[in-house]
Every structure is written in structure tokens, then in C-alpha cells.
Amino acid sequence: MSDQRVVRPTPISGFPEWTPQVRAVEQRWLDHIRAGFESFGFASIETPSVENLDVLMAKGETSQEVYTLHRLQADAKDDSDARLGLHFDLTVPFARYVAQHFNELTFPFKRYQTQRVWRGERPQEGRYREFTQCDIDVINVDSVPLHFDAELPRIVYRVLSGLDIPAWTLNVNNRKVLQGFYEGLGVKDPIAVIRAVDKLHKIGDEGVREILEGEGLTAEQIDPCLALARIRGAGVIEQVRALGVVSELLEEGLEELAFVLDDLADLPEGSVVADLSIARGLDYYTGTVYEASFDDDPGYGSICAGGRYENLAGQFIRKRLPGVGISIGLTRIFAKLVAEGRIEGGRICPTDVMVVVPSAERRADALRTGELLRERGFNTEVFHSTAKVGKQIQYAAKKGIPFVWFPPFEEGGEHEVKNMAQGEQGAADPAVWSPAT
């Protein structure tokens, strides 16, 4: 026995991985999502997993989440990796990408991006250190038409309604409504109130009240703030105005929110709902904000989120480049269904046909047969040895391969194929055969 040290394999918390059967389903989901994004004319990009820390810090309060890059055997004097980190979302890399490739892009630039991201936070249900996000954004020079604020929820509806997932609702709000309302109340720091209200679903009214009292708000200011956060569903515009707070920014936000809701009125009732408790605490959102959750498990966390931002890319280029984007949390959705046993695994392998190798002398014939079947579009595996035919068939059965191909066992013999599900076997021509025949 070897004296080599054996490292016991153990799962790393917060880094999910799937068996081939489950991964096959995830890949089908990714194909579906990609097709949904492309059906609205969004183009794919991919950015490096690593960004300069100056770029990653452009988003604001994220330093505690970023994994920095450091080589294990790095020279103490070599600091070339010292300012690099793994990206924690796809919005900031996208903003940097647009600034860097500005002269090569056509605006409005509509992109989608599906990649892994990394966040250094405590793993728990629905929260991971490594996960896949599926982002769509529209960015433009000087202004982004409000039409896109409504188009993004429409895309999300098309994508998510095509997946077998529990009932969900996409909630919509507008940061101008919140900030304008708080300004109309005489609040000195509206962003601080937005951050507090963003915790409403976690800490409740009293928790938010306590934070706002700590920010110096009076009861006359806190009560309307909580009243605003309770407004949801139909008639939200009228309900906000009924609270009696007036400001120019508030009115602008209400008009934008009304436009988005009206534009989405043809979607099934309840799929997109105005919810004035949705705040999205990050300080770069400036207009429409989105947040979706499962209807029967709202505490699980958002499965889709985003919003409008005015100048994120402007931190990398001397141009005004506002945008609006939304992200589908693929891993958060998928992992929940896997844990609940709601994902029916796909095939163990993608092989359509396995070609038997009758003998060492006939291996060349088997290889030629495999090539012909591949040319005709069938995923084909030629068995890896000259084991007994029975063992070769057992291998195909274990892998769930639907057809086993037998090339001629002797010169002048016939090709035959076996349907593993039905147990039927008969003569076949690899040049014309199809599973339907």
C-alpha cells in the first residue's frame, strides 16, 4: 500500500456542486434563460472573474464581501496580485466593460451575462459563497428610455414562467418615490431611511422604527414612512398621494412607477406588483427597483432583483452612462428545489448511442461507425475496451444510454442496434438510421 497521504474529501460550505443528472437539468435551465434573453435582442458578454479592487469598490459598501487574490507561493516582494479580487456581482464588471469598450459598442447597449460570482459571507439557506447569476442590463449615453424599466420585468416573467418553479411575485417600486417622500417630510438623510426600510421584512415595523429614531426622526416623520411602506397592490399612486406629502421628486417617481405598471398591465394579475416597502438598500439605485420572492417562502430571500442606476459606469469614463438591470439568482432558485427533492434529474450522460467493440480486430470498424453517427448529429460513445459484449451492454445500461450499436462482428455482417428501453434489437444502417425507425 502506498504511504501517500490521503486527503479526505469534504464539501466546502457555501460552494454547491451537483451530480451529472442534476447538472444536466441546470444546463437546460441555463439554455432556457439564454434563449429568453436573446429573444428580446440582448447580446452575451463575459468578463474576467477577477477585477481590480478599485473597480470592485466602485459600488460602495462591499469590501467585507470581496475575496482578494493571493498566490500561496507568492514572493513577499511581489505585490502584483495585491489589488485583485473576485467579482461579487456582474453589474460593476459590466459598468467597467462598457467604459473600456465604449467606442466599440452600439447604444443603447443591451447585454446579458451569466457567470459565477463570489461573496465572502456566512453560508446559510439561500446564501452561498459561490453562485451563478443571470443578469440583463441596458445602458445608454445620457439617458435610458423608461420603456426598458418595463421591458426587464417582462423578460423575467417570460423566463421564470417557463421554468418549473414555485409561485413567485416580482415587486416593483421607485427610489424617487421613497426619497421624494422622505424629503417632503423634512428628513435630512433620505438614504439612511431607505436602508432602514429595506430591512422591514426582516426586522418588522418596530425594528425599523428603532433605527429611524436612532437617525433622529420624530414620530411625525416615522409614522408616514411606515405607512408608505405598507402600500402594495392596486391603486398605489392614489394611496401615496392620500398621505399628503408633496415634493417634486416624489411626483416624478410616481409618474415613472405608473408608467411601468401600465406598460405591464397585460401580464397575468399578480405576477408584477407595486410594493412600496421594496427599497434595495444599495445607494447607487436612483429610480425603478425590483425584487422577486417565492410566494410561499418570502423569507428565503430574493430570487430576482435589480433597478435603475444613473452613473455607475461614469466612475470609469467621463461620460454619463445610466442603466437599468435585473438579475436572476439561478443558484438560489435551483438549490432550493434540489434540497426539496423537486428537481427530477436528467440523464447520467448525454450519450445517445454507444457502439460496441466486438474485438481488437474490429475496433477500427467501431470507430468508423461512431464517426458516421456523430456526423449525423448523434452523441456517440465507442466503448473503451474489448471487454465481453455483456459487460459493454451493462455499462450502457448503468449510464442510461438509450441505444447500443453493434457493428458487424465479422466481415460482410450486418449492423444492428438495440433499443435499451424496449429490449428490441434489429438490423440498421448507420447512414440512415434514426431512433424513430
TrEMBL record:
List of residues binding L-histidine: 89-91, 119, 133, 137, 280, 284-285
Q: What's the domain of life for this entry?
A: Bacteria
Q: Which reaction does it catalyse?
A: tRNA(His) + L-histidine + ATP = L-histidyl-tRNA(His) + AMP + diphosphate + H(+)
Q: Which PROSITE patterns match?
A: AA_TRNA_LIGASE_II
Keywords attached to this entry: Aminoacyl-tRNA synthetase, ATP-binding, Cytoplasm, Ligase, Nucleotide-binding, Protein biosynthesis
Q: What class of enzyme is it?
A: ligase
Q: Does the keyword Ligase apply?
A: yes
Return the EC number. Answer: 6.1.1.21
An example Gene Ontology biological process: histidyl-tRNA aminoacylation
Q: Which residues form the Aminoacyl-transfer RNA synthetases class-II family profile domain?
A: 37-358
State the family it belongs to.
Belongs to the class-II aminoacyl-tRNA synthetase family.
Q: How does it assemble?
A: Homodimer.
Q: What is this protein called?
A: Histidine--tRNA ligase
Source species of the chain: Nocardiopsis eucommiae
Q: What is the lineage of its organism?
A: Bacteria, Bacillati, Actinomycetota, Actinomycetes, Streptosporangiales
